[in-house]
Amino acid sequence: MNADLGSPRELTGLQRRRALYQPELPPCLQGTRVRVEFGESTTSIDPKCADIVAQAFPQTFGQKLVHFLEPNSMASDTQVIKEQPPIRVGVLFSGRQSPGGHNVIWGIYDAMKARNPHNVLLGFVGGTEGLFAKETMEITNDVLSSYKNQGGFDLLGRTVDQIRTKEQVNAAMSTCCDLSLDGLIIIGGVTSNSDAAQLAETFAKHNCKTKVIGVPVTLSGDLKNQFVETTVGFDTVCKVNSQLISNVCLDAVSAGKYYYFVRLMGGKASHVAFECALQSHPNMVILGEEVALSKLTLMEIINKICDGVEVRAAQGKYHGVLVIPEGLIESIPEMYALMQEINNLHINNVTEDEIPSQLSPWAAALFKFLPPFIRRELVLHQESDNSAQLSQIDTEQLLAHLVEAEMKRRTKEGNYKGRKFSSVCHFFGSQARGSLPSNFDSNYAYVLGHICVQIVATGLNGYMATVTNLKDSTNKWRCAAVPLTAMMSVRRHLRGPGAVPIGRPVIHPSPIDLKAESYAVLREKASSFLLDDFYRTPGGIQFEGPGANTKPITLTIEDQDYLGDIEILQDYLDKVRTILKPGCSREILKAAISSMASVNDVLKVMSAPLHAELPLYHFN
After folding, report:
1. Which residues contact 328 (CB under 8 A, 6 or more apart)?
2. What is the pTM of this model?
3. Which residue ranges does the record assign to the Phosphofructokinase domain (predicted)?
4. Cα–Cα distances in Å, from 434 out to 9, 149, 180, 214, 393?
5. Whole-angstrom distance, CA of residue 452 vs CA of residue 482
6. pLDDT reported for residue 73
7. How would residue 560 be classed by pLDDT, with cut points 50, 70 and 90?
């Protein structure tokens, strides 16, 4: 393990000032007493998968939604968490570093010490490998002092980000038992929280007292569903990347002769590219979700980009900025099929050098068509979740290469009479991962840390700490614990009536909702972005003054307060129960039966699994 992990940092003036920032807490977490309210039992996100998830997770499926509230009026289904005997909790980073991760640990520490000064928080040094090897350090205020509101994961570090095999799970359970941990908190994204769910199930099966809790921390923002509005780090990463993109936009319009192809880190989904496009207004943005639903081929994408270049050239503009997500290449049908073949060969232990000769004829033909640098990158060894190394595939250079070839062809044939096309390529990846977290991410992470402690104190296993109503001020945030199994589903092999779920239940990355209001805003502005150089300069992250508390645009546009809506529904149901007490008139009873029957029919149809594709949204 790296001996420097957890060592005191030498902070700059800005870092010292940020270390003094005290994150805000919602009212329910500000005191030493918290009211816990148990809601209804949960199901899975996809109704068709509920039985499969239940079979795979018999110990932890169907657990209740839990709300953490201010300890005021008491109800029969609530309890108050008071000071209890000392507890021991372990925490680790499992996933790519994301701004704000350290504040989760800070929040855990403060909440534990507020409950009982003798509580012990152990950090696993080196992520999951540190967990297996029992490599720990005790988290103290002195240790935390130079990591508060700081970027990176270098307090504890991370390694393989995997707790999946029988040996790994058994090693994790052995560590938790040997250290007598009451709770194990795993900080990470979709893969890490899926592993946390499996670990919780195994612990429950073997009567291990350790409660496993997940925290949604990932820069890609793809751990998103009814309960999780956004992830820790997404806001900061988008702010940093948007500043870089806006700088590139101003450079492009100043020189007037280059097209900048910018690829953004963010995994399979396009959330980072989407948010950055709304913040910086590049001329073009291609979202993987659009390409997948429209089934655009590689050359169709190239032609659309070239058409945009021609339209701008007609206005005397020979510059521009194109933004793409790193997952775009997997959204292109023929590239996805090629990558699946390569993936299967990797699974069968075919070496990188031998893969080209083992491809099917059509895949070999496509592989040969691609530039040499892309061929080398496509056969690289896989990530820990057996997926392609998207960050290592220079999709932006592939597009620039093919666009240049197509523009030469159009020029030769006399269809394009403008200046020579020239491009510059960028990949913005790790540049943003270690950034000082924004105020929003600092607050959000710190609150999640506090919630984790309440989950342990309530004795909940297999839950994720969540906050909703995030677009509002901190004092209106809703804090809860949601069963990890409620976020799980099983991928279907094919779409259509005959599709059947395959594989094991996991939490899947959430794609952009192309029916959402935020997407409609982007499409409405697309023509202006393309033609008018409507560049926006958000500047660097602001920590004080105007702009310090801005939040992601996609978060503020959408109405996502799922827990708030559940409360509204519960209020209506309570009112109905009050009206329909035994002794009410027959007319009222009949009206209620008729209305409930209609509501039941509508909800039954809406809850049925979707067999058709989502509406088709074209790139242009």
Report:
1. 263, 270, 286, 287, 288, 291, 395
2. 0.89
3. 88-455
4. 14, 11, 33, 22, 21
5. 11
6. 54
7. low
